[in-house]
Records
---
Amino acid sequence: MKYKVIVATLKTNVTDHVVEAAKACGISGATIVPSHGTGMREAKTFLGLSLETQTDVVIFLAEEELVQPVMTAIHKAGKLDEHGTGVVFVLPVEQVDGIKEEIVRQQPD
């Protein structure tokens, strides 16, 4: 079975909605990493303190046939049609280990 990694950088207020939407498409889980970045615009400050918006990087391992439905679900749940709400992209996966139940399910009897 072929897999892809879907990576989404999202505002923290939509992360839970995006993960639930991906699970509804058949994704079993996600890795969520709190983050902040350096976007196109300068970070705002108040009294010398950064007012950067916190974001989450959400990583999904998806079977290849689930990628498009999951991307659509992420786009909708993450409100990615609104400016500055997030970015999502897909990367190829060469090898996978640690998902034994998925591999066993694929083996012929």
---
Amino acid sequence: MRRFFYAYQAFLDRLEKAAIWATSFLLALLLANETFGIGCDLLGHSIPWITEVSVCLFAWVVFLGAGILSRRGGHISLDFLADRFPPSLQFWLKVGYALIALVVVVVLVYWGGQLALFVGRFQKSVYLQISLFYFYSSVPVGGILIGLNSLGAIFPNPRREEMTKLGKIEENPLY
């Protein structure tokens, strides 16, 4: 079983690295697109498709980013309260978090996938005539990432030593 956990955590490491690169690239495109849009507005020109591209990029950045954050517990949480509980109860809190996250994942993947398929069949963006499937498919993809990373958060990681309070502060300076 230890071998499975090791392989799963290694898989999540590679997946996280790919998702971070993809999200960084999309965020750079979003920044360039917005800068271009602001520049055009200042010069008195209006390019209507900039909004469509921005919405698509923003949706992908948000859902990929949510998937990345779910592995490290980067979403809003009450760490200061959970850290006061005994380790056995902390484990069960993590399991409860993962179960709730998996319910959210099922909703995101199922209904997000249904919406992406339905909208993708019948609707296109106004100016670029791109299928809206590409806009809405960010929801199930982000949901899958959240699910995989939420499971990885509760599975033991045989490669990592016990993280100290100092290590937690170094990992998240806002802690």
